[in-house]
Design goal:
Layout (H helix, E strand, L loop, with lengths): L2 H6 L10 H5 L5 H4 L3 H12 L3 H33 L7 H47 L2 H5 L3 H43 L1 H8 L1 H39 L1 H6 L3 H53 L5 H42 L20 E8 L10 E8 L4 E5 L6 H8 L7 E6 L2 E2 L5 H5 L2 E4 L10 H6 L7 H10 L3 H5 L18 H15 L3 E5 L7 H15 L3 E5 L3 H5 L3 E6 L2 E6 L1 H7 L2 H7 L4
Parallel strand pairs: 3-8, 3-9, 6-7, 7-8
Antiparallel strand pairs: 1-2, 1-4, 4-5, 9-10
């Protein structure tokens, strides 16, 4: 590879990420969280993929460390051989060599950092992309048990900790060790006595660092906890700003903020104060070491035991000896933080993904007959009791089914089981006679569409939000779907029409307009099975009529499950299932249920629909 090309373009990011490279481990999950050796080994595996460039970086570290050691030695040589005797013949050559040493030092330092940053960014790219791919492969149950903010922290903060350590700490630690060892060897060779005096600083440094880190460690933990509490309050307050204002709770919110902010100010002050002692203590010890070496060295020089050049070398080396110690001490917490961050990332990478163990029915075209055969299910987070129990029904192709019942009756769970967001604990669910666990999830979900009570819109154009239902849809198909969904008229009035970017989950449009866009998205997907989860709730009457008209078009020829909120939806259903405590207690047509005079009839009488 041409050297200049290597400098300009050290990496080409691979489009395909091999997750097995990130997931390989022979440790149990409980061991990984405590095993920093295993974590380091996994990071090294990623770094080692750039072995040639890494070896080049390490060689450059050797060069820069050697130049850092050679520079002071040449200065001492100039003092002894030219300045003290007062002869300057040949001094220019040595000075030229000294200048060359520091130029080579600077160049090697730049290149090693440049290439190491490239390596670290490629590693971080692999980790970040692999983690994001893992998020797409994890089952819904995983996200049920995790806070979204905590997962975001792993994607951002934890990976950035690893990035910062690879960018600087890797080279810093290796360089510091080389300089420390090299400096000690040269110093012992020149004067064991002065070397011993220089080493006296180490116990004092250890005691000082131990005293400081014992206090700063606890304070920084408290500071991070205070930051987390304050951020949590800010996020909660911003998200619930309407409720805060509706109940006039601004003074109380401000009081909570000031309390948490004061705690952060207090812990931050003492954390920074104690940590600020580190450079001051190090400077004090460095200056003390310098004074001792200079004083004792002067006495030894007067007695003819060492030369003046050796004293010059030692005064420089005494500083150079303590600097790596200081660097290593400073990098220790950084490295530990990076390892902890990598452990958190790898713990997600090792979570079992949502897998399909079947290859048959991958090309199956769903017609829409749905059967539940004695299905029971409970969520992992549920402490006791079944969410649905012994649910059985048979829905023919193209039928519309209304699911009724109080909150917690199990209506939404039925839909989520049908889409295989969860798998039933007992019983079997069949589509067109095929058990859904014998069908790849991708095949199943590609022919099912959801229209939810709270539609989610992405921060992109109106056009792309509708196209999400069918990625290869043309602009004409998108416009046709919008017209059928009664969304075309309001889209045309937006600032840029279909190219208008919806910011903040579509905060610039009404709830009803969001719902119309979600219906257009479902229409363009052309699903065989449609799942409507209270799609017309919280909508004004005029908008409801538009939405209902759009839903009527959407449901034609499709098997539809509707969690009913209003009577109009139920009237058009072919079958009505009334659920209570996870069981279907009544089923039949609306007319049949009214004639029976059961719960459904009472619900109508009490005007609960």
């Amino acid at each position: 590879m041409n050297m200049f090309n290597a400098i300009r373009r050290p990496f080409g990011y691979e489009p395909v990420i091999r997750k097995e490279d990130l997931k390989k481990t022979d440790k149990k999950k409980s061991d990984r969280a405590r095993n920093w050796k295993s974590t380091l080994a996994r990071i090294w595996k990623l770094v080692d993929e750039h072995r040639f460039l890494l070896i080049t970086v390490l060689l450059l570290v050797l060069v820069s460390s050697a130049m850092a050691l050679l520079g002071p030695y040449l200065i001492g040589y100039i003092v002894d051989e030219f300045l003290v005797p007062g002869t300057f013949d040949g001094m220019g050559t040595i000075i030229f060599a000294l200048v060359g040493v520091y130029i080579l030092y600077s160049i090697s330092l730049y290149l090693q950092h440049y290439w190491m940053i490239g390596i670290s960014q490629q590693v971080i790219y692999r980790m970040r992309t692999g983690l994001f791919q893992q998020f797409q492969s994890l089952p819904v149950t995983f996200f049920d048990k995790r806070q979204h903010g905590e997962l975001m922290s792993r994607m951002t903060n934890d990976i950035e900790n690893v990035s910062a350590t690879l960018n600087s700490s890797f080279i810093q630690v290796f360089s510091s060790l080389l300089i420390l060892i090299g400096t000690a060897i040269v110093m012992v060779t020149l004067s064991p006595i002065l070397t011993l005096l220089t080493l006296i600083i180490i116990p004092a440094m250890y005691v000082a660092m131990t005293w400081i880190t014992r206090r700063t460690g606890k304070l920084f933990k408290e500071q991070q906890a205070a930051v987390g509490d304050l951020n949590g309050l800010i996020e909660e307050t911003i998200s619930g700003q309407r409720i805060v204002k509706a109940f006039s709770q601004e003074p109380r919110v401000m009081e909570d903020f000031l309390e948490k902010s004061e705690r952060l100010r207090h812990t931050g002050f003492w954390a920074q104060t104690y940590s600020g002692f580190i450079p001051k203590v190090m400077n004090f010890l460095n200056n003390g070491s310098f004074a001792i070496v200079a004083g004792v060295g002067g006495v030894l020089a007067l007695n003819g035991q060492v030369s003046i050049g050796v004293i010059v070398i030692f005064t420089e080396y005494s500083r150079q000896f303590t600097r790596p110690l200081n660097d290593l001490a400073n990098q220790f917490n950084t490295v530990l933080s990076a390892i902890a961050g990598a452990e958190r990332v790898f713990s997600i990478m090792d979570e079992p993904v949502e897998k399909d163990f079947v290859e048959q029915n991958a090309d199956k075209v769903i017609e829409g007959r749905v059967q539940f055969d004695d299905v029971s299910f409970k969520y992992e987070t549920a402490e006791e009791g079944w969410t649905i129990r012994n649910v059985s029904f048979d829905v023919e192709i193209g039928q519309t089914v209304a699911l009724l019942g109080a909150t917690g009756a199990g209506k939404t769970t039925v839909m989520q089981l049908l889409a295989r967001f969860y798998d039933a604990n007992e019983g079997v669910i069949l589509i067109d006679g095929t058990p859904i666990h014998e069908m790849p999830r991708k095949t199943l979900r590609s022919q099912i569409a959801f229209v939810l009570q709270d539609p989610f819109l992405f921060e992109t154009s109106v056009k792309e939000n509708i196209r999400y239902g069918k990625l290869d849809a043309t602009d004409e198909e998108i416009m046709e779907a919008a017209k059928k969904a009664n969304a075309h008229a309001f889209i045309e009035k937006l600032p840029y029409g279909y190219d208008t970017v919806l910011e903040g989950d579509g905060s610039m449009i009404s709830q009803g307009q969001k719902q119309l866009l979600s219906i257009a998205r479902a229409l363009i997907a052309d699903p065989a099975i449609l799942l409507l989860d209270e799609a017309t709730s919280s909508i004004d009457t005029v908008t409801e009529l538009k939405i209902q008209e759009a839903l009527d078009r959407l449901m034609v020829g499709r098997t539809s499950f509707v969690i009913a909120h209003r009577l109009n939806t139920v009237k058009k259903a072919d079958m009505v299932f009334v659920m209570e405590m996870g069981e279907i207690i009544e089923s039949g047509t609306q007319k049949e249920l009214i004639e029976r005079g059961g719960l459904y009839a009472n619900m109508l009488k009490d005007a609960k629909l």
